[in-house]
Specification:
The complex is a heterodimer of chains A (372) and B (161).
Chain A: H1 3-46, H2 52-59, H3 64-70, H4 77-81, H5 89-110, H6 113-123, H7 125-140, H8 155-163, H9 167-174, H10 180-187, H11 193-213, H12 217-244, H13 249-252, H14 265-268, H15 273-281, H16 285-288, H17 303-321, H18 327-351, H19 356-364
Helix pairs in contact in A: 1-18, 2-19, 5-6, 5-18, 6-11, 7-8, 7-11, 8-9, 9-10, 10-11, 11-12, 12-17, 17-18, 18-19
Chain B: H1 3-39, H2 44-52, H3 56-71, H4 86-105, H5 109-125, H6 130-139, H7 141-159
Helix pairs in contact in B: 1-2, 1-3, 1-4, 1-5, 2-5, 3-4, 3-7, 4-7, 5-6
The chains are: A mainly alpha (372), B mainly alpha (161).
């Protein structure tokens, strides 16, 4: 073989090898590098999540002043300090909700641009809550200010709604948002208050779904799974509660949220709660609810923590499968939601004068009952 | 190509690719270290050790660069393969291959950085996982060591020091 031939073979091989390696290396770096900082930070944040011992200590606070003082060394301090001496369970609840909303916004800040919008949308959940709470408070003749949380991208409009003197002014405050139309229909008496609230969540879920569908690769897989599980949990709980109350299928359908893959028709059309649970047994949730299957017909509340734990378990599974991915942040937000929910429950129980041992018992059995 | 081009490319690729990969690896782990420190300063020591692991590939690249230049005579007596003969082409190609081997196996610094990054996260959550995290990250080092050993054999047997 001549010199030119050897050189030719070498040059071509080098060019091919380098092109392939440069492409693969670039793709590898693009995929994982943006998650390096947020994932390590979130892991460090996970180390600060409250364990059972910490919840037990808080349960023994005795009064809300001590409860707040016990949270002095945590990230909740700034939110609770802002309350001053006005320590009521609902004020503490709002402060904790603000802390949770800021957790979502922190995720949105540190996560890669390609999933940032998802966490902003999660924080926008308070838009739906706030709008529904203002309308409900107005309907009940109460002061709406007490029920709104300073969170969500429509907070300014929500405040305007709360300050409005007439329903028409409230509608004007919502003009230009996707929530104006259902409120208009509610004002016209076309839908009930409960249907209005469901419609708000429907539209919110639709926005989330559109965003998730626009993602690519692993991110889409993880976020779709998260969305699916959250929506299905809400739908399953809605149907089971409706079945227990004997609500007809055509009414139940009005309260179903979009975004799940579970076939709901057999559950909705089941004769009673027992039949609906039997239908659920043949789905992926059959194994999930197996541990509470015997007691669930007597006490439907036991199914909620089981479904919530399943979502967290699935997200942790996905985190193991996709180590540097959005799954870590999603799983963390689920755990943070649970922490906040338990703190709210402890504050409420302390205020109600419940014994510490009973509070510990209730909190350890506590479940995640957050909306989508 | 002339033999000098192969030799120069071999030396450059050994140090260049391995060095660039180390830079990426340290960068990825460094970002994770910053994330862990942002939440708790106590993570600094553990994060620093893990962050430094992907640097070794650049050292292997540098060692190989010196060996290639030494065996080709560029460092010392003068370039040995200046004549464009088949034998010189083959020897310079062997040196090129040695450099390429170390350069490409040096790319292990990137996944090592990713492993170290995950390790920093794991240690930030639970400091007891530090040793395990070091071991996991060190596994990626094996490929770089194999590459260095392979390059040494190629240089020593194919060209001679």
């Amino acid at each position: 073989m001549g010199v030119a031939a050897i050189s030719g073979i070498l040059d071509t091989t080098v060019a091919l090898v380098f092109t392939y390696i440069a492409y693969k290396t670039g793709a590898y770096i693009h995929k994982y590098t943006p998650y390096s900082y947020p994932n390590a930070r979130i892991k460090a944040m996970e180390a600060k999540l409250f364990d059972e011992q910490r919840f037990n200590e808080l349960a023994e606070s005795g009064n809300l002043e001590n409860f707040v003082a016990s949270l002095e060394d945590t990230a909740y301090r700034e939110y609770l300090t802002a309350l001053g001496g006005d320590l009521t369970p609902w004020n503490i609840e709002r402060a904790l909700d603000e802390a949770l909303a800021d957790t979502y916004l922190l995720m949105a800040k540190i996560m890669p641009g390609r999933v940032r919008g998802f966490f902003k949308l999660l924080a926008d959940r308070w838009d739906v809550k706030n709008i529904a709470n203002v309308v409900k408070a107005r309907t009940a003749g109460e002061d709406p200010e007490r029920y709104i949380v300073e969170a969500g991208s429509l907070f300014g409009r929500v405040q305007a709604m709360a300050e409005a003197k007439t329903p028409e002014e409230m509608l004007v405050a919502l003009e230009g948002t996707q929530y104006a139309e259902p409120y208009q229909r509610y004002l016209l008496g076309e839908i009930s208050l409960a249907e209005f609230e469901t419609e708000l969540y429907r539209r919110y879920c639709g926005t989330l779904k559109d965003y998730v569908s626009s993602r690519k690769g692993d991110e889409r897989v993880i976020l779709e799974e998260f969305m699916r599980l959250r929506v299905e949990r809400v739908n399953v709980l809605t149907i089971l509660r409706a079945k227990r109350s004997g609500i007809p299928p055509e009414v139940i359908e009005r309260f179903i949220l979009p975004g799940g893959k579970l076939k709901l028709e057999p559950l909705i059309n089941a004769e009673d709660l027992g039949m609906a649970l039997a239908e659920l047994d043949s789905t992926e949730y059959g194994k999930v609810i197996w541990e509470v299957r015997e007691t669930v017909e007597k006490d439907l509340a036991v199914i909620e923590p089981v479904l919530s734990r399943y979502i967290l378990r699935r997200m942790r599974d996905m985190e193991r499968f996709y180590p540097l991915s959005v799954a870590t942040a999603v799983a963390y937000t689920l755990e943070k939601e649970e922490e906040v929910r338990k703190l709210k429950a402890i504050a409420k129980l302390i205020h109600d004068g419940v014994e510490p041992d009973r509070i510990k018992e209730l909190v350890s059995e506590a479940e995640l009952v957050e909306e989508v | 190509m002339d033999p000098i081009v192969y030799v120069a490319l071999g030396a450059a690729l050994a140090a260049g690719i391995a060095g660039a990969a180390s830079a990426f690896g340290v960068g990825i782990a460094g970002a994770a270290a910053a994330g862990a420190i942002a939440e708790d300063e106590k993570n600094f020591k553990n994060a620093l050790i893990l962050e430094g692991l992907p640097m070794t590939q650049s050292i292997y690249g540098l060692i190989t660069l010196f060996l290639i230049l030494l065996s080709a005579g560029i460092i010392g007596s003068g370039f040995k393969f200046s004549a464009n003969t088949t034998q010189n082409i083959v020897k310079s190609a062997i040196l090129f291959g040695a450099g390429l081997t170390v350069g490409l196996t040096g790319l292990s610094a990137i996944p090592q950085g990713i492993i170290a990054s995950s390790g920093i996260g794991a240690v930030a959550k639970n400091p007891k996982t530090f040793t395990q995290s070091i071991i996991f990250a060190a596994m990626a080092e094996t490929m770089a060591i194999f590459g260095l050993v392979g390059a040494l054999i190629m240089i020593a047997t194919g060209v001679g020091l």
